[in-house]
Design goal:
Elements lengths: L1 H7 L7 H11 L2 H8 L6 H12 L17 E3 L2 E3 L19 H10 L3 E4 L7 H7 L3 E6 L5 H13 L4 E4 L10 H6 L1
Parallel strand pairs: 3-4, 4-5
Antiparallel strand pairs: 1-2
Helix pairs in contact: 5-6
The protein binds flavin mononucleotide.
InterPro entries: Aldolase_TIM, FMN-dep_DH, FMN_HAD
Protein name: FMN hydroxy acid dehydrogenase domain-containing protein
Keywords: Oxidoreductase
């Protein structure tokens, strides 16, 4: 499906907006709305985009650019550039390989895969599918035993850090998802 759409676009997508358009065409509306939508009137979603637009690069001229190195470290782990895969839920809605494929892409890009607590692939599947440096995003559920067991599983499977979510006392009211139910 994606290959056909690439041909329609006459050439490979060259930026995130073009990838988003391909996703809109390829995915069932319900899944596209889930991935692309935000909560309530989506002010925060828009502001996230605007905030990045306000950041501009300061040009530095007449400097040696023959050796450019964007690599950095996160908690002591070296990555190729200051970009990581943020935790996001249920990648299998978009592709049968789900988070396993995402983790492989992270490994190929020499960056860190942060696996979501609500991934559609298990902690073990993602761990055994590639050698990406892996962190695990944790929601602390009311039943603390669930969190304990998750932490034990991620430790056993070589995940290097817990990305602790502290700002979701309740889920956002996502209006598109309510309509698509
Ligand atoms: C479809 C979708 C699913 C997400 N699922 C999770 C999740 O399971 N756990 C989590 O901690 N954050 C989740 N997030 C939040 C992202 O990790 C990220 O913090 C958020 O999208 C803000 O970054 P952005 O402005 O680059 O999109 C999700 C975001 C999206 C768009």
């Amino acid at each position: 499906m994606v290959l056909i759409l690439l041909m329609i676009m006459e050439g490979e997508p060259v930026n995130v907006n073009e990838f988003q358009e391909l996703a809109r065409q390829a995915l069932p509306k319900m899944y596209y709305d889930y991935y692309s939508g935000g909560a309530e009137d989506q002010y925060t979603l828009k502001e996230n985009v605007e905030a990045f637009r306000r950041i501009t690069f300061r040009p530095r001229i007449l400097v040696d650019v023959s050796r450019i190195n964007l690599s950095t470290t996160v908690l002591g782990y070296k990555i190729s550039a200051p970009i990581m895969v943020a935790p996001s839920a249920m990648h299998k809605l978009a592709h049968p390989e789900g988070g396993i494929a995402t983790a492989r892409a992270a490994a190929a890009s020499n960056t860190i895969m942060v696996l979501s607590s609500v991934s559609s692939c298990t902690i073990e599947e993602v761990a055994s599918s590639c050698n990406a440096i892996r962190f695990f995003q944790l929601y602390v559920y009311k039943n603390r035993d669930v969190a304990t067991q998750l932490v034990q599983r991620v430790e056993r499977n070589g995940y290097k850090a817990i990305v602790l979510t502290v700002d979701v006392p309740m889920l956002g009211r996502r209006e598109a998802d309510i309509k698509n139910k």
